[in-house]
From TrEMBL:
It comes from the Bacteria. Homohexamer. This is Phosphopantetheine adenylyltransferase. The lineage of its organism: Bacteria, Pseudomonadati, Bacteroidota, Flavobacteriia, Flavobacteriales. It comes from Kaistella jeonii. Substrate binds at residues 9, 41, 73, 87.
Amino acid sequence: MRVAIFPGSFDPITLGHYDIVERATPLFDKIIIAIGQNSQKKYMFSLEQRMEFIRKTFKDFPNVEVDHFEGLTIDYCHSKNVSFILRGLRNPSDFEFEKAIAQTNRELTQDNKVETIFLLTSASKSFISSSIVREILTFGGHYELLVPDSVRI
């Protein structure tokens, strides 16, 4: 069974995230959208809110699950016996950052390789990021075109 972990903070989930998951669903038997928790980071939305946003967004996708974890993504992959990490790329700087993480993960799992699969975000969504959405929300701007309906608050 081909299972992929799509890790992130999803604070909040955006249409860019949606684009990646929607396009990846035919490639995998199951995709686990895994919300990583960082005790040093302050989130705009609680873990429960973010999980609910994602559940509602993908309610019609039978092969998409939502979970959360603390610690290293690679350790979470091993705990779930998953061999693939799914990541979206918006631009060249995303690639450089994600490449370094993917190569580190491969080194950390010499016996049980975890491959990172990169999908380019669709051009019409490549400018969207959770941090941009949070900034717009903070100042009362119109964020609705950047997020799934489930995030509209």
